[in-house]
Design goal:
Radius of gyration: 17 Å
Shape: flat
Structural class: mainly alpha
Order of helices and strands: HH
Helix content: 55-70%
Distance between the termini: 42 Å
Largest sheet: none
């Protein structure tokens, strides 16, 4: 059923996240800090989520400043 599939995806995501945390704690992954344009990242996230949102009858809106937002 659809609910079972959604639950399976959520469980798989949780397992992936826990696996990532385990690798981080074991020192097997090195995080590299770098500047990120938060505006561009938000635009990409909205573009990726928009088809699913519209298919569900929702609209996504993003209010952003005219230039990059560095973090």
């Amino acid at each position: 059923s659809a609910k079972s599939e959604v639950l399976a995806v959520r469980i798989a995501t949780l397992i992936d996240d826990l696996s990532d945390l385990s690798r981080l704690k074991a020192g097997k992954v090195t995080l590299v800090r770098q500047r990120l344009d938060l505006r561009a990242a938000a635009e990409e996230a909205v573009a990726a989520a928009r088809p699913a949102a519209e298919a569900a009858g929702h609209a996504l809106a993003l209010t952003r400043p005219p230039g990059p937002v560095w973090v």
